[in-house]
Write a structure and sequence with these properties.
The structure holds two protein chains of two kinds. In chain A, about 70% of the residues lie in helices and about 0% in strands. Chain A is mainly α. Chain A starts with a helix and ends in an 8-residue tail after the last helix. Chain B starts with a helix and ends in an 8-residue tail after the last strand. Classes of the chains: A mainly alpha, B alpha+beta. Chain A: It holds the Pfam family Hormone_1.
Chain lengths: ~210, ~550
């Protein structure tokens, strides 16, 4: 199924390339498609955190790392509506792409270690991680296309390396806590990506208020 | 001395006062621990938090909210305690940041001390719950004879829909007035929707709610209702058209009637013919000579000759047992003719038809019997085979007369089956409560000898009355007196078919009388005795076409048979 998805995303890419080369598809439609993808991504990550919350050890609430220790926290993003509306389109797109790229490696680690996760809904979590990876990949490819149409300023990506290593803990409690922490970081970042793209979409479709 | 006691009294009083003061001061305490209940952001730009104070310890207690925020140094206090009401803290746009964690605490303090609540951690993106949508309007619209509901609303108060900062998704639910079930629809981001599958003449209620991104749903808006019309327009038009169309032929009919009223009058109210007596001269009567009148009246009156009447209904009553049927030759014998003994005068009740139709029907039955002759031979083999199933008289005779495939088992207890057999030719004759069969001899006038009444249970065919078995209460006395069934009478057990009357078997005495009476009936009596399959009370099958009565006069048939 992963193979099909990658070939599906390849197909999407070719289509997008063709479309982009024809320059017939307006960028607002591309952004609409992309924001649908980011909406799906955020929805998946929200569900996953809720599942993990249901089986979270109480001690975890105390010893869970602070969100400022998310590996993407160094990226400076707007923190309220006023700030967000002042960011340029290229910057918004660049932020979205950077965040998305930053999660490729951690998702690989998560999917590798989910089988050892001591959680009752472990298989469901495993499936969702897979879905997350696929959606993330296809969204990233789509954003690459859009950035190509938006000019060089949109091409810049900040690298945010993940330094968490290849495992998420040795014992049961720390596995659960780290997994939960990573997912909450991802949930926040996927929300940021979603909002940035939706703001972009609304700006790009000035003649279509229903896009906002 | 008195001074000492007075002083002691004062001392006691002072001690008491001190004690009471001490007691009072013991009921005061530092405040109880407050609890942070939760926070809510309606539009991702501001948010409010609420807490529940603990006990106040008997003293005036104040509550203060402090927060620490990610990416913000230091501990800060709530910027606004008032806007959101008691025990709340409102964070305005300048103090609200998203995608950062807040750590909130509430401190309750009074004269005796402070108490701090537990830390409450939150991120604005997690506490989003919008206001309800506004101005929900409901309209009934019509397009090409189809009714639909058009629902329209506005985004919730104070929510930004222009920048893409929030994406509002709506959901609505609809309910008919009588049911308790809501039907839900998602509207997406549109602020209107058309509902097509609605019924006329009902009250519909609609509620709308929304949510931002993937946050919590808002509360349902207040219910808005509308009544759908009851197709008055269409119905009125339809009935107007119908009445107009039907008025046209009605008017033409009336015109014709009026124009031809003479003919109509003649048709509807035919003139009653004046009396015309044959041979009577009206003029003669008018002249009024009495002798002439009397002569005219007597001489010219012609009574129908009894002989002729007799001729008309020379029909034979056929008495048969089942054994009779087994014998093909005997079946030949029953050249279907009906015998009505001469002595019989069929006189039905007041409400019944004249005897003449009866006679006619008897003749008809005779003809029918002739037709059915063919079936006799075919059925004899069957009758043989199924004799075991049958009670003696009825089924074979049935077989003879009606090509019925099924045999009806007849017992004393199941008169209904006879009725069902007879139902093949059910034609209601008349509703006679009672049938009066009189016996008179020698073509005399009606001579009531015995009047036996049986209640007619059912009338089948033109000429068959199925009598109810059993005593009629009103007539119990009469029938009781007839414990000894006269020789000439057999009680009819059942009538089935057009031409069968099944007589009940009489006592041996009667049998012998029967035997004596009629060589013609030897078969029947012999059959009675011979037939090993007779069960239940012995029965005699009598095939006659006779109006059923309590008693049937078995009269020997003429040697025609």
């Amino acid at each position: 199924m992963a193979h099909r998805r990658t070939s599906g995303s390849k197909l999407l890419m070719t289509v997008l390339y063709m479309v982009a080369s024809c320059s017939a598809v307006p960028i607002s439609d591309l952004l609409d498609r992309a924001s649908q993808g980011s909406d799906k991504l955020h929805s998946l990550s929200t569900t996953l955190t809720q599942v993990l919350d249901s089986h979270f050890p109480p001690i975890g609430r105390v010893i869970t790392p602070r969100p400022s220790t998310c590996h993407t926290s160094s990226l400076h993003t707007p923190n309220d509506k006023a700030q967000a509306l002042q960011v340029s389109e290229s910057d918004l797109l660049s932020l979205a792409r950077s965040l998305l790229a930053a999660w490729v490696d951690p998702l690989v680690v998560l999917s590798a270690t989910v089988n050892t996760l001591p959680h009752p809904a472990q298989s469901s979590i495993s499936n969702k991680i897979q879905e997350l990876q696929q959606h993330s990949k296809s969204l990233g490819d789509g954003l690459d296309i859009i950035s190509g149409k938006m000019g060089p300023a949109a091409q810049a990506i900040s690298t945010l390396p993940y330094r968490g290593g290849n495992d998420i803990g040795q014992d049961k409690i720390s596995k659960l806590i780290n997994f939960h922490f990573l997912m909450s970081c991802f949930r926040r970042d996927s929300h940021k990506i979603d909002i940035f793209l939706k703001v972009l979409r609304c700006r790009a479709a000035k003649m279509q208020p229903e896009m906002c | 001395m008195t001074v000492c006691t007075r002083m002691r009294g004062h001392l006691g009083l002072a001690l008491l006062l001190l004690l009471s003061a001490a007691v009072e001061s013991n009921s005061m305490s530092p405040p109880g621990k407050p609890v942070l209940l939760g926070c809510r952001s309606p539009e991702k730009e501001t948010f409010t938090c609420w807490w529940e104070p603990g006990s106040d310890g008997g003293l005036k207690t104040t509550h203060r909210l402090f927060y620490e925020r990610e990416r913000l140094e230091g501990k800060h206090e709530c910027p606004d305690y008032r806007s959101a009401g008691r025990n709340s803290c409102f964070f305005d746009r300048d103090h609200t940041s998203i995608w950062v964690d807040y750590h909130l605490t509430v401190v309750a303090s009074n004269e005796l001390g402070n108490t701090t609540s537990d830390i409450f951690k939150m991120d604005v993106m997690e506490i989003v719950k919008p206001n309800t949508p506004e101005n929900v309007t409901l309209l009934v619209m019509k397009r090409e004879d189809n009714l639909y509901l058009h629902v329209r609303w506005e985004p919730p108060y104070n929510t930004d829909t222009k920048s893409g900062w929030v994406t509002i998704k709506y959901e609505l639910r609809v309910k008919q007035e009588k049911s308790n079930e809501w039907k839900e629809y998602t509207s997406g981001t549109e602020t209107h929707i058309n509902l097509y599958n609605i019924n006329p003449g009902t009250l519909y209620a609609v509620q709308v709610r929304c949510r931002l991104d993937h946050g919590s749903w808002s509360e349902w808006s207040n219910s808005t209702s509308v009544n759908t019309p009851d197709y008055p327009h269409n119905e009125k038009l339809f009935w107007i058209l119908v009445s107009m169309l039907s008025a046209v032929p009605f008017i033409t009919a009336m015109c014709i009637l009026v124009m031809k009223r003479k003919n109509v009058k003649q048709y509807l109210l035919p003139p009653v013919p004046g009396p015309k007596i044959r041979g009577v001269d009206v003029q003669l009567l008018k002249r009024g000579r009495s002798e002439d009148v009397i002569n005219a009246l007597i001489i010219n009156q012609s009574f129908p000759p009894m002989v002729a009447w007799k001729d008309q209904i020379e029909e034979y009553l056929i008495v048969s047992d089942d054994g009779l049927l087994l014998d093909p030759s005997s079946s030949q014998k029953r050249k279907k003719s009906l015998i009505i003994p001469a002595g019989f005068h069929l006189d039905l009740g007041i409400q019944c038809k004249e005897p003449t139709p009866v006679q006619r029907d008897l003749q008809k039955a005779e003809e029918r019997k002739n037709e059915m002759d063919n079936f006799v031979k075919a059925n004899t083999s069957l009758t043989e085979g199924n004799l075991s199933d049958m009670e003696p008289p009825q089924p074979p005779t049935q077989k003879q007369l009606f090509p019925i495939a099924s045999f009806v088992k007849t017992t004393d207890q199941s008169p209904s089956k006879h009725n069902s057999a007879a139902e093949n030719t059910v034609k209601p004759l008349a509703n006679c409560g009672y049938v009066d069969i009189q016996r008179h001899e020698n073509a005399k006038e009606v001579d009531v000898i015995e009047v036996d009444y049986s209640r007619v249970k059912e009338v089948s065919g033109d000429n068959i009355l199925i009598l109810q078995r059993g005593n009629i209460p009103g007539y119990m006395d009469i029938q009781r007196q007839k414990e000894n069934i006269p020789e000439d009478y057999s009680r009819v057990k059942e009538v089935d078919g057009d031409n069968k009357v099944l007589l009940q078997r009489q006592n041996a005495s009667t049998d012998s009388s029967c035997r004596e009476k009629g060589n013609h009936y030897t078969d029947c009596t012999n059959q009675k005795l011979r037939n090993p399959h007779v069960t239940g009370p012995s029965k005699v099958g009598v095939c006659t076409e006779l109006i059923g009565s309590g008693y049937v006069d078995t009269i020997p048939a003429p040697p025609l048979m």
